Predict the structure.
Amino acid sequence: MNPADLLAKINALPDFSDDERAYLRQHLTAQKQYGLVWENKPEAVEDDLRHQLPLLVERAERFVETHTCVSPPDGITPDGRPIPIPFDEPSGDEGSNPCVSAQTTLPFGSEKSASLVDYHQSTNEADFSESVYAPISPQNHTLIEGDNLHALTTLNYTHAGRIDVIYIDPPYNTGNRDFKYNDHFVDREDSYRHSKWLSFMAKRLRLAKTLLKDTGVIFISIDDNEQAQLKLLCDEIFGEENFVANVIWQKNFAPRSSAKYFSPNHEYIKCYSKNISLLGINLLSRSSTQDDRYKNPDNDSRGVWTSDNLTARNYYSLGTYPVTNPAGRTIDGPPKGSYWRVSKAKLEDLIADKRIWFGANGAGVPRLKRFLSEVQDGVIPQTIWLHTEAGNTQEAKKEVLEIFGDDEGFFATPKPVKLLKRILQIGGSKNALVLDFFAGSGTTLHAVMALNAEDGGSRQCILVTNNENNIAEEVCYERNRRVIMGYQNAKGQSVPGLPGNALRYYQTAFVGRERTLANKRALMQQATALLCLKEGCYDEIAIPVGAIPSGGEPSGFVPSGGETRGIASLQLSENPSGGDHVETRYLASPRPDGTNPDGTNPDGTNPDGTNPDGTNPDGTNPDGTPVHSLSPNGRPVPHPAIRHFGGPGGERLLIVYDEDAIDDAVALIASWPDNEPGNPPIKVYVFAPSAYPYTDDFADVMTGPTAGRITLCALPEAIYQTYQRLLPVAATPSSSDDRS
């Protein structure tokens, strides 16, 4: 029977649902291609997606950030003033971190680092543009708490085709309470044990594949329980031709006396590429042991060298001839069954160039000299990784205990940092974007930050984990918060944090899947975190109500209150509809006389008491007329339907939550400078009931000085279009008609 004809008949079956036809197609194609057939068991978290659409919400109170900055020499500012050191001893278990976070005040000027936060958000940005103590933007890392099926779906909207390296350490399905399916542990007696695991993994690996760049690579840890099934599954999903290697990692080195037959001391790491023709595997750094093999007994001017065998077993027609060494002994030819690797003429050239070694007394057989200066900068990775070079499980447990001080927050099966650093060195560049969607104890992010600190890299990491037994909050997040901020180890010693890192914490959430107008507006209102993550724009820029019609960009409002720690900028409420919450974030230290470096008062007002934009302290114009809409405490009310975010390279993200605010959005864009350094992009997401992003309404700014920089996108249609390719069949038919 022709399988293609059978597939066509399955697709045409009138009395079968879409899911039933998909089930039959899956079994037919799996059996046809690889012989890997399993019972596709329904999964509750997948059923959630038949009713709801996943999105992300940020837990802003868990944001952690440190900056690496360049401090002035000898603690002196460019104009000769000493830098004050507003240092509060860190509390709790935090060590002495030489940088600052949004949560903790920490010291200036340690190891050429200084304490600045969000300097690019200052209303006096020009004053800092050439400052030698300007901060370097931190590497933005992400932790998503939630089921990884839901999180991977959201990441397919924000990061499709953008991930360089994926590493995962999924449940091994040992039957010993390590794998849950539909909230129940799967034991060895479960007749669907392997089917459940394959169903679970297949859904997630298919989503993961679409996240990889074409040059991307995935590494998967596994043991003997599922390694054979995983190989077939990955051949099916990634393609057998994209298999790269099956690494054997020595996870421990001591034999287990309790073992019944053999004492297992290894696991596997399967490696697949997205497109093997585009894959570039990096060389590993040479070890001192490898370099120690190179000597220079003959004082060759080209430096140290080692000798290599000049014979080979492959047939070579010009590779059989006698050789006379410097001691006068004639060697009839290579050993029986082998050949010289070069012709006689080539050998004479090598001898003349002093590249052949006959031994210290010149009486030996010829060997080829290989100079260290001429070999590759590294070595090709091998498929057996010993614990001495890639760590072991005992080492991994000690690393976790070292951070937590005892067994508080302990995670039973962590991987060592050394193992992850090796994977990152092999699989990606120094600016790789890394994903781990079985994050567990968070080793992958720890390794990313540690490796960046070692080699000056700018890798960024996305972690995904559920919060079973509070692992997301109390282990994964807390571990990496301490690594960033510094901590006290098990011996009570202070361990410095790793500066130049920011960690944002998200949770998965949902809105109704049916395309009613109410659901569309709800999705738009809750899409902020998703859009900021997608565009890499996290720093909110204030848009007070009343500022846009007046012409010119809003200046931001610095609240009073007698603070003396420096220039401040506003961080607005996470509520898209506004609110009155304003967080003050300090940007630089004051002068010794208490004024800010730009000459303003400690509260940000001008020397004459007016606000930075020249308005009176109550927000009115100098003549007393109103200019801004103010809340009862005198602060400007954020715009109820527009939010503006900036990125580290000057990128702008504008979110227009309601179509009635489009005129204000156009006015705001028109107020921006015509020529910004590098002409960074401007991404505008605007609510639209359909796929039309109101291009005509934005025509003036699309054709003006900002032409070529602006991209319009209609939401939530763009999200719908991504999700419809990924989600299971909806529980009830969706309609494109808007229903309230």
